[in-house]
Fold these 2 entries.
Entry 1:
Amino acid sequence: MTHPHLPDGGALVDAQVNARAWNNIAAHATGTSPEASEVPQDIAWTAWPGRGPGAGFLGELAGRRVAELGCGTGEHTACAAAHGARLAVGVDVAEARLEQARARFGRLPALLWKAGDAAEVLASLPCLDVCFSIYGALWYSDPARLLPVIANRLVPGGILAFTVNAPRDGETPGRRVDNLTLPTGARLPVVHYTYGANTWHHLLAEAGLTMEAAVAVDDPRGRGYRALVLRARRPTRS
Ligand SMILES: C[S@@+](CC[C@H](N)C(=O)[O-])C[C@H]1O[C@@H](n2cnc3c(N)ncnc32)[C@H](O)[C@@H]1O
């Protein structure tokens, strides 16, 4: 899928815009302790506690090589390590978020933190059994660029699972720019890519991945948001 309105280097622009926003969020974070933190026992796939599948959605993690794309302050990467991953790599485009992740979970074995745009960092990683992302790089960067890189890093039979939002009623799917609001009231642009489950099915297939589960979770506050928690697999034979 191409975006004719984006100049060459659009992906780089997206990553820079989003890194700026999330580095600023990190600088103003009040709720996230920069100190050692408890590892969550389960993966929270949506922003609504108790809604969505748990860590089982990723299949067996013990002994696996896992990467989280857009790991933020690292709790889910740490959770994957606590479930026995041989290697759990947290990737984030915002260095300041990774500094917080290191401070919170750096004491744990099997963890590695990598700063940069997910598509670029992935190319430097070893082959992976599992990739996941929770409102991370699959939400903030162009899937037409990122999915083929993920497919190329996954071993045959490897899993990609991720959460994004579906387009809201009346919203045009595709690239959009929103604003994050800092505690100071300042607004910073972020770039999203929003598609429905059918389009994700096609995007994944174009990248050589087979979608095998799509869980839709509606916002319990009734604000019209719908999270999509998707799982795809690299076929064992291609
Ligand atoms: C909404 S936060 C989600 C953090 C984490 N997944 C969680 O569940 O708490 C989105 C994160 O994605 C990161 N991000 C955005 N674009 C990215 C990209 N192209 N590559 C890697 N990380 C990215 C941001 O810096 C931010 O930390």
Note: The helical segments are 10-27, 75-82, 95-105, 118-122, 137-140, 143-153, 197-206.
Entry 2:
Amino acid sequence: MDRLSAHDRYVACLLAGAAGDALGGVVEFMTLAQIHRAFGPGGITQYSMDDDRIGRITDDTQMTLYTAAAVLDAEAAAPGSFERMEPNVGRELSSAYLHWLNSQGIATSVTLLGGRALRLRAIDALNHERAPGTTCLNALAARIGLEADPIQNDRKGCGGVMRVAPIGLLAAGLADAPRVAFVWGQRAAAITHGHPTGYLAAGATAVIIAELASGRSLHEAVATALTLLRSTPGHEETTAALEQALAAAMDGAPSARVLESLGAGWVAEEALAMAVYCALVSSTLEAGIVLAANHSGDSDSTAAVAGQFLGLLYGLESVPSRWLDALECRSTITDLALQLAEVVAAR
Ligand SMILES: [Mg+2]
């Protein structure tokens, strides 16, 4: 992949993910029947029917940006290799997510790091409460330091899956990119989600992002994730969900019916499987994100992750301008994506 096209795809990954998040966020708590009553048989395809057409990003994109800030700061402290970053990444991620917790109006007694995550706190549009996940809030509020071990709980919501794309983006280009993405995707999720599926599905998501960012097809990327999963204890639910997504993609035309057969997306493995299905079966980025937002479950998370996959596959030109033009935090998202692309291009 040439340098310019890599930058374009990185920006597309995070912007299309945010657009999916904003689109799905409007209908997150609606059934498919309610969505059809409100928006017609085609479902939701634009952020709002009102005059105010702002695409409001939710906690999914907020936390993704804090992940990007954390890994960029860790990389800046030890440039050139993820191995050298390793002592810092966990602390940077913990600190960044606690900055996010502060942005939700919840104080922490932990002393936080500065850098990019602190600078995100100064951006007004990022300081909104947009139906944040309770596991993320509770797990972070309970933290007493940056060095603490992975959280001990049994939560497997999709709060890890929806925020780890920047880890895959930063890992791309390393000799051992899939393994690095897998390990750090898990570590990032395990800060809040202690059930193996909660963090393994996040590791798999980061692997798929890293593989797509390296120019592989989605089928190849999923195959790499499955290989890594199968050698890891506790992988069964995540593996089964991904295999079900691959089978569903062979099951006739893309449809909400088949999508909903994979679940509702509130839990990690279902959100990942639904995003994979939507990205596999759709012939355009727009169709894939619309499919991923229009179902009875966690529409913003499934559409965000599908958008991240599709952005890497199709590039920025394929993201509808009506979504880009009205998207909150567009310049911040673009800037962080470009910084990630710069790191990878300089390797
Ligand atoms: Mg959300």
Note: Residues 25, 58-60, 131, 300-301 surround magnesium ion (CB under 6 Å).
